[in-house]
Amino acid sequence: MRPRALVRSIVDASELGEDGVLALISDVLTSAPTTIVGPGDDCAVLEVTGPVVATTDVLVEGEHFVQDWSSPYDIGERAAAQNLADVAAMGAHPSALVVGMALPGHAAGEWVRECARGLADRARAIGAGIEGGDLTRSRGGIVISVTALGDLRGRTPVLRSGARVGDAIVIAGTLGMSRTGFELYDAGRMTPTGLAEEATSEKPVRELAEACAAVFRAPNPPLHTAIGAAARLHAMMDVSDGLARDCQRIARASGVSMCLDSTLLAPDCQRVAPLDELCRSTAWSRVLRGGEDHAFVATCAPDAIPTGFRIIGSVESASGIDVSVDSQPLTGPLGWESLA
Ligand SMILES: Nc1ncnc2c1ncn2[C@@H]1O[C@H](COP(=O)(O)OP(=O)(O)OP(=O)(O)O)[C@@H](O)[C@H]1O
Ligand SMILES: Cc1ncc(C[n+]2csc(CCOP(=O)(O)O)c2C)c(N)n1
Ligand SMILES: [Mg+2]
């Protein structure tokens, strides 16, 4: 099992200095074989052919992760995963990550190394390198900013604006698990050593809670499934803010209505429902409005569902209602609102 405790004692970033921290993580940051100049110079130099996709996501301590809940390795994996999911959601192959870290002076060098290891392991698993970054001081909490680049390999990008009337709405990956994990941590029911003793004694429920907590700490979206399906998909995005909110983004970008079918989402609800008593919202709400599993929601011709995707609804002509469930408009918040 990975070390989950924050190791503060070894050597502080302020003692190590920028060059010292860089030296500490340099062997962890593996560059891709095709890279011309990796970490160490003013810029990386990458071999690129054709269009490049580019995306950035910023993770802020207290907003996106909490050190009491997540290990530095988890946080590195999460930072990589959510950027890799954005690249895959365009139908592109991730090729490079560039990582900025703002660290409080007391952050342990070992913390940074573990975080870098999480980043590098996830990047390597999909064939991408960590090609550079920046280290600076933060007088607040830790901030990690990841820029990801990807290669379309001759394909056209899969946009949010491509959904067509008559398409099926399809999904690959889990829904509601990250939100369930978040609610368990937030209520103090999930602790670094597992589900609090008094929460439940049923083993399957404990295992489910652990699985949801793991998805919250570091989601594992099916990147290969999304990239492999791209040629058949008309529109796609990764679900970061909630299924309903992200369907609304596709609806608005494509000028269509996204009609979800609750019976087709029932398996997702049933998966997380055993934890209802320990959560503050219902399984249905966690599935519909919870984000951060980074599942892929897409649309495609109903007779051409790609491997690894399943139908959850249909695309209909714009009715003034962006997202409906069983023909009823959704009321209340559709998902996470970052600046609220
Ligand atoms: N500060 C900014 N400057 C320029 N463009 C931005 C800025 N912030 C967001 N955007 C653009 O707005 C769009 C939506 O951004 P958003 O961060 O919501 O992406 P997302 O993939 O939907 O969500 P998430 O950040 O949860 O992955 C993206 O195309 C993004 O590049
Ligand atoms: C400590 C803590 N509190 C709440 C959440 C939930 N959360 C934060 S950002 C976000 C959506 C994407 O936002 P952005 O657009 O900022 O990337 C969600 C669902 C969390 N991960 N950690
Ligand atoms: Mg996205």
UniProtKB/TrEMBL annotation:
Positions contributing to ATP binding: 133-134, 160, 240
Residue stretches making up the PurM-like N-terminal domain: 40-150
Keywords: ATP-binding, Kinase, Magnesium, Metal-binding, Nucleotide-binding, Thiamine biosynthesis, Transferase
Pfam hit, one: AIRS
Something else known: Reaction mechanism of ThiL seems to utilize a direct, inline transfer of the gamma-phosphate of ATP to TMP rather than a phosphorylated enzyme intermediate.
EC class: transferase
Keyword Transferase in record: yes
EC number(s) given by UniProt: 2.7.4.16
Binding site for Mg(2+) 1: 56-57, 134
Protein's name in the database: Thiamine-monophosphate kinase
Role summary: Catalyzes the ATP-dependent phosphorylation of thiamine-monophosphate (TMP) to form thiamine-pyrophosphate (TPP), the active form of vitamin B1.
Residues involved in Mg(2+) 3 binding: 42, 86, 238
